[in-house]
Write a structure and sequence with these properties.
single chain, about 210 residues, alpha/beta, Rossmann fold, five-stranded parallel β-sheet, globular
Length: about 210
Amino acid sequence: MNAPVPSALSVQGLGLTIGGATILQDVDLAVDAGSLIGVIGPNGAGKTTLFNAISGLMRPTSGSISMDGRDITAMSVPARARAGLGRTFQTSSNFPRLSVLENVAFWAELSGAGGMSASDALSALGIGHLSDLPARYLSAGQRRRVNLTRALTSGARLWLLDEPTTALDASTTQALTGLIDRHLESGGLAVISTHTDLGLRAAGTLMLGAAA
């Protein structure tokens, strides 16, 4: 009998305690290639903390994280990016004096730049015309779109998208949905925290904290 194929992303028994407070406890998550998992829960339930742990920004106090059967629990953030993990953030931050294109190019190079070019990623999200604009002049929705280019330019198989639709209008949300759908069709996988129904079929849902 053939051994079962491990999930592309596997989180087992994950726990994280900060300053004596337990933020995550015994979290299990499995995501196969081509699949989407939604993470839901009230504010403060630990959704962003989970994303921080998976992406390497925070070290879990218990449990393990693996990709394609390889334990990445102790890996650095750059090593996880090289292993195929791409992350966007709930809070959008840019270098205010750099142009939009320079910001996107910087993060693309840092993550390995294996996906779309910076200019193509901006065009895909409808802000190609802002390439030369200093980032300090961006609106909240435009900053969000610049943040989302991090996933598009990374070439990562795993997209961790933390509240990706915040401050987006309906047309941009639809464009993002199409990009996620194509990513999944190409064998990628995604874990998404969002309060917006993107119309994508999820393989499952992870609930953190008490139901809202």
